[in-house]
């Protein structure tokens, strides 16, 4: 199979206007909109993302220790978001300068790599949180075994390494090219390698987005069913409502940030592979470019999850913002989504994962009784 982008670009040549990066002899991509949309949106994500995630890291490191499993996942999620937003000033400059990249090929490769590393690490960390909460609500005994902070830390390390390993080919695909006085930093690859890049990108999307998204949907569907089921001794309506809000936030991140980006990117790649009509290509190109900032916006939406799931996090954040006196570090427990009634003699959170299973059996029997 001949290279799709190569065949598509046999009639595509360098544009006399560097603002139009890919131009057919009788089909010009009008991308003027992105030189306003992308710098502004990336600048907003940088300011909000750094402003929200930097204090989060500080709180997790110095005021919310020791961590439980959920706090471990959230810390790594905040770390991933922070690393990504620190790379955004280079993209703000690149698009504000109308596709001119003066920072070298190495930094171009790393910046594009960091986008997808953050994207898929965020997906997997949110999936870890979803599975952890599902276990805590629907299978509390198993949560004692698999919900320990040490296991969560090892799983987070595995996420970092697995995603980075899967994205190593991206470092070879992404490159720069010169067009007149303009240096382009390609988001995909050279025209002659485009079909290979699409195959690689499709496999990565299925493994690092499709499967985790399905797992998250299944977990939250089962969680919602359990939370809505009126069981004796189960969590009061207010606690169940907080849990359902957490479900809503994670699903919103997927629906707003991840799903539109992957759908429009797939359509865009397929349209180029199949050499679609010029008008179709322009429409698909615009829609795809519009959803790119949405994928970056997860760095701003993720901190909402911390606010909804951790009472200690909210309290310490409020003290930080109001200039109150810092308190000694406290355990950051947030798994206790299904609490027992106030007069129950058996209470548990994942801060005490080492307690005996027999005690939990007694508690669960009391809940069901």
From TrEMBL:
<dbReference type="GO" id="GO:0030321">
    <property type="term" value="P:transepithelial chloride transport"/>
</dbReference>
<keyword id="KW-0812">Transmembrane</keyword>
<keyword id="KW-1015">Disulfide bond</keyword>
<keyword id="KW-1003">Cell membrane</keyword>
<feature type="region of interest" description="Disordered">
    <location>
        <begin position="1"/>
        <end position="20"/>
    </location>
</feature>
<feature type="transmembrane region" description="Helical">
    <location>
        <begin position="73"/>
        <end position="94"/>
    </location>
</feature>
<feature type="transmembrane region" description="Helical">
    <location>
        <begin position="40"/>
        <end position="61"/>
    </location>
</feature>
<feature type="domain" description="G-protein coupled receptors family 1 profile">
    <location>
        <begin position="52"/>
        <end position="306"/>
    </location>
</feature>
<dbReference type="InterPro" id="IPR017452">
    <property type="entry name" value="GPCR_Rhodpsn_7TM"/>
</dbReference>
<dbReference type="GO" id="GO:0045028">
    <property type="term" value="F:G protein-coupled purinergic nucleotide receptor activity"/>
</dbReference>
<feature type="transmembrane region" description="Helical">
    <location>
        <begin position="114"/>
        <end position="131"/>
    </location>
</feature>
<keyword id="KW-0675">Receptor</keyword>
<comment type="similarity">
    <text>Belongs to the G-protein coupled receptor 1 family.</text>
</comment>
<dbReference type="Pfam" id="PF00001">
    <property type="entry name" value="7tm_1"/>
</dbReference>
<dbReference type="GO" id="GO:0045030">
    <property type="term" value="F:G protein-coupled UTP receptor activity"/>
</dbReference>
<dbReference type="InterPro" id="IPR000018">
    <property type="entry name" value="P2Y4"/>
</dbReference>
<keyword id="KW-1133">Transmembrane helix</keyword>
<keyword id="KW-0807">Transducer</keyword>
<dbReference type="GO" id="GO:0005886">
    <property type="term" value="C:plasma membrane"/>
</dbReference>
<keyword id="KW-0472">Membrane</keyword>
<feature type="transmembrane region" description="Helical">
    <location>
        <begin position="197"/>
        <end position="223"/>
    </location>
</feature>
<keyword id="KW-0297">G-protein coupled receptor</keyword>
<dbReference type="InterPro" id="IPR000276">
    <property type="entry name" value="GPCR_Rhodpsn"/>
</dbReference>
<feature type="transmembrane region" description="Helical">
    <location>
        <begin position="244"/>
        <end position="263"/>
    </location>
</feature>
<feature type="compositionally biased region" description="Polar residues">
    <location>
        <begin position="1"/>
        <end position="13"/>
    </location>
</feature>
<protein>
    <recommendedName>
        <fullName>P2Y purinoceptor 4</fullName>
    </recommendedName>
</protein>
<feature type="transmembrane region" description="Helical">
    <location>
        <begin position="151"/>
        <end position="172"/>
    </location>
</feature>
């Amino acid at each position: 199979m001949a290279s799709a982008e190569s065949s598509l670009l046999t009639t595509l040549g360098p544009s006399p206007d560097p603002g139009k990066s890919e131009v057919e002899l009788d089909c010009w991509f009008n991308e003027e909109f992105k030189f306003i949309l992308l710098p502004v949106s990336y600048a907003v994500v940088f300011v909000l993302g750094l402003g929200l995630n930097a204090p989060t890291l500080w709180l997790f490191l110095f005021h919310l220790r020791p961590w439980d499993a959920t706090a471990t996942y959230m810390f790594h999620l905040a770390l991933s978001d922070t690393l990504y937003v620190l790379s955004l000033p280079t993209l703000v400059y690149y698009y504000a300068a109308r596709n001119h990249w003066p920072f070298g090929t190495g930094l171009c490769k790393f910046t594009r790599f960091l986008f997808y590393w953050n994207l898929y690490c965020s997906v997997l960390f949110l999936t870890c949180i979803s599975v952890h909460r599902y276990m805590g609500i629907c299978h509390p005994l198993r949560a004692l075994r698999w919900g320990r902070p040490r296991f969560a830390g090892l799983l987070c390390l595995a996420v970092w390494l697995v995603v980075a390993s899967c994205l190593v080919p991206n470092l070879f695909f992404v490159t720069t090219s010169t067009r007149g006085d303009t240096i382009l930093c390609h988001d995909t690859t050279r025209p002659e390698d485009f079909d290979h890049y699409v195959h690689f990108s499709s496999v990565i999307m299925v493994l690092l987005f499709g499967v985790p998204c399905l797992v998250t949907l299944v977990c939250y569907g089962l969680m919602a069913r359990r939370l809505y089921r009126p069981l004796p001794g189960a969590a009061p309506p207010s606690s169940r409502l907080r849990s359902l809000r957490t479900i809503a936030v994670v699903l919103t991140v997927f629906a707003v940030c991840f799903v539109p980006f992957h759908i429009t990117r797939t359509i865009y790649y397929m349209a180029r592979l199949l050499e679609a009509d010029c008008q179709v290509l322009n429409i698909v190109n615009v829609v795809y470019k519009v959803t790119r900032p949405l994928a970056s916006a997860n760095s701003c939406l993720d901190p909402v999850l911390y606010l909804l799931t951790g009472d200690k996090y909210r309290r310490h954040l409020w003290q930080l913002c109001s200039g109150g006196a810092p308190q000694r570090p406290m355990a950051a427990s947030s798994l206790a989504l299904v609490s027992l009634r106030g007069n129950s003699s058996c209470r548990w959170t994942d801060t005490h994962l080492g307690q005996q299973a027999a005690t939990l059996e007694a508690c669960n029997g009391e809940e069901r009784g």
